[in-house]
Amino acid sequence: MGAGKSSVGKRVAKALGVPFTDTDRAIVREHGPIPGIFADRGEPEFRELEAAAVRTAMATGGVIAVGGGAVTHASTREAMAGASIVLLTVSPEAVADRIAGSDRPLLANGGIDAWQTIMDERAATYAELAHAVFDTSRRPMSHVVDDVVAWLRAGGDTSTENEGTA
């Protein structure tokens, strides 16, 4: 959450000349605001909608930004099989301003402390799935985009991690 998935993803897709899908936005278009889905249907139902959105996006191809919790659902992880997966990381200090005042359901009670707890819980899954890691904490998004595009154009080597540097 707050690492810049949508911003970076949109710019990477444009640079590569491929479609861009933000699965959270696709869910909102089809089912309404995410906080409402969480409130009315619960997180498990949201994760099912998210898995379906990821499957649809994978069929379309291009660059896909998935919500930070998407990979907690086995069906979503299965749908992402075969994709080059980029993990964007961000420090707690840098993300604090990015998430301030957000309507993210999992942060409704707890703010940055809730964010840190969620990141700690998901860290092992993120590390397992990511083929490349780029930090967005203190770098202009344009530099992160350039690094991701370069990595993908080089074949998106899934055997190494790439740390963006300042």
UniProtKB/TrEMBL annotation:
Domain of life, per lineage: Bacteria
Cited Pfam families: SKI (PF01202)
Metabolic or biological pathway: Metabolic intermediate biosynthesis; chorismate biosynthesis; chorismate from D-erythrose 4-phosphate and phosphoenolpyruvate: step 5/7
Residues noted as binding ATP in the record, renumbered to the chain: G2, A3, G4, K5, S6, S7, R104, R139
Cofactor binding note: Binds 1 Mg(2+) ion per subunit.
Positions contributing to substrate binding: D24, R47, G68, R122
EC id: 2.7.1.71
Alphabetized Gene3D superfamilies for the sequence: P-loop containing nucleotide triphosphate hydrolases
Main location: cytoplasm
Free-text function comment from the UniProt entry: Catalyzes the specific phosphorylation of the 3-hydroxyl group of shikimic acid using ATP as a cosubstrate.
Catalytic activity: shikimate + ATP = 3-phosphoshikimate + ADP + H(+)
Binding site for Mg(2+): S6
Keywords annotated in UniProt: Amino-acid biosynthesis, Aromatic amino acid biosynthesis, ATP-binding, Cytoplasm, Kinase, Magnesium, Metal-binding, Nucleotide-binding, Transferase
Cofactors: Mg(2+)
The name this protein goes by in its record: Shikimate kinase
Record text on subunit structure and interactions: Monomer.
Recorded GO MF terms: kinase activity
SUPFAM superfamilies from the UniProt entry: P-loop containing nucleoside triphosphate hydrolases
PANTHER family the UniProt entry points to: SHIKIMATE KINASE, SHIKIMATE KINASE 1, CHLOROPLASTIC
Compartment annotation: Cytoplasm
Source organism of this protein record: Curtobacterium pusillum
Family assignment from sequence similarity: Belongs to the shikimate kinase family.
